[in-house]
Design goal:
The chain is α/β, with parallel strands linked by helices. The protein has an 8-stranded parallel β-barrel with strand order 3-4-7-8-9-10-12-13, surrounded by 6 helices. The protein has a 3-stranded antiparallel beta sheet with strand order 5-6-11. α2 packs across α3, α4 runs parallel beside α5 and α5 packs parallel to α6.
């Protein structure tokens, strides 16, 4: 059924259908009867899926990745749709329009997306207003913050701190995004010398857990360096990974992909590298940091593989687009089944078990 609906939706431009679908989701969750119905349809409420991670209680491990709800307009939407949490943003200190359209593209043969949105958002003050009006008792929300495009790299730390101060008191955790390929020079901030003052500025501005989001295109040596810095500064964790600038191994014709232009590629094409980065991070930091795995997760088997590889939490965006409204529920039910089949009594027991003889 959803496959047929997806074909119809794909007749419309990607950003147009995003706004329409998002509007429908918000409407469904706005009133109590709709929230009850969507919760009944889409939530896998199972105690074995619950976990406490960096001091925050998560009802289930799969969350909605940043990029879908840029301005926290759907703060009360994601729990009833089956997600254990959501990450709003990316939010910048100043409002900005992002890159010129078209800037979002589908690769159906790869079940993937390419985007060069460019952090289009209403600014941190607007997102803070939305978060301030969220209903109590909802799923945890993280705030993903990025650099305002017009801000020079040497002023990046102060720019991030503005967003952190506005959003920190209203979010359950903070994610510092230095890994989008769509803001010029942003990925250069992943270098430890540039990253240190940014992370320290955010840490000094908030009392909630702080994580950093890294790119899959970093070298292994740079991944190690970021992990070591995160441990040194006392970060809560790392989100791995963002979209990739690579285009190899795609089913869609290379000339058609090239014609779409630059941007970050998400979905199954990034899955192998995302898993590789996760395994490397866990081998290096173990339980010193919380690892959130994102990139190419489509099935319960893949989600379970990420947990065994060291992920305490998971995220998805492209999988949600192609998988539909029951996607989170299917994955959560699959994880619960695998936990019980493996003799685990909690999700936390399985995290990183793939690095031991038990798995």
């Amino acid at each position: 059924m959803y496959a047929l609906l997806l074909k119809v939706m794909f007749l419309l431009p990607p950003e147009r259908i995003h706004h329409l679908a998002f509007g429908a989701m918000k409407l469904a969750a706005r009133f109590a009867p709709g929230r009850r119905l969507t919760t009944r349809l889409f939530v896998a409420d199972d105690p074995i899926l619950r976990s406490r991670v960096f001091g925050v209680d998560f009802p289930a491990p799969l969350g909605l990745a940043a990029g879908f709800d840029k301005n926290a307009e759907g703060a009360d939407t994601w729990g009833p749709l089956g997600f254990g949490y959501a990450e709003i943003g990316t939010v910048t200190a100043q409002a900005q329009p992002g890159n010129p359209a078209p800037r979002l593209f589908r690769l159906p043969a790869d079940r993937a997306l390419i985007n060069r949105m460019g952090f289009n958002n209403f600014g941190a003050a607007a997102a803070a207003q939305h978060l301030a009006h969220r209903r109590p008792g909802g799923v945890p929300l993280g705030a993903n913050i990025g650099k305002t495009k017009v801000v020079e790299p040497e002023d990046a730390a102060a720019d991030y701190a503005i967003s952190a101060k506005l959003l920190g008191p209203l979010a359950d955790f903070m994610v510092v995004n230095v890994s989008s390929p769509n803001t010029p020079g942003l990925r250069d901030l992943q270098a430890v010398t540039s990253l240190r003052p940014i992370l320290q500025a955010v840490l000094d501005s908030v009392s909630v857990p702080v994580l950093v989001k890294i790119a899959p295109d970093l070298s292994d040596e740079d991944i190690d360096a970021v992990a070591d810095l995160a441990v040194e500064l006392g970060l809560a964790g790392i989100v791995a990974t963002n979209t990739t600038i690579r285009r190899d191994g795609l089913a869609n014709p290379a000339d058609e992909v090239a014609a779409l232009g630059p941007g970050g590629l998400s979905g199954p094409p990034v899955a192998d590298r995302s898993l590789e980065v996760l395994r490397r991070l866990y081998a290096r930091v173990g339980d010193k940091l919380v690892l959130i795995s994102v990139g190419g997760i489509e099935t319960a088997d893949q989600a379970w593989e990420r947990i065994l590889a060291g992920a305490s939490l998971l995220q998805g965006f492209t999988g949600f687009i192609y998988g539909g409204p029951l996607w989170a529920k299917r994955i959560h039910r699959g994880i619960a089944d695998r936990l019980r089949a493996g003799g685990y009594t909690s999700l936390s027991e399985a995290v990183g078990a793939g690095h031991t003889t038990r798995a």
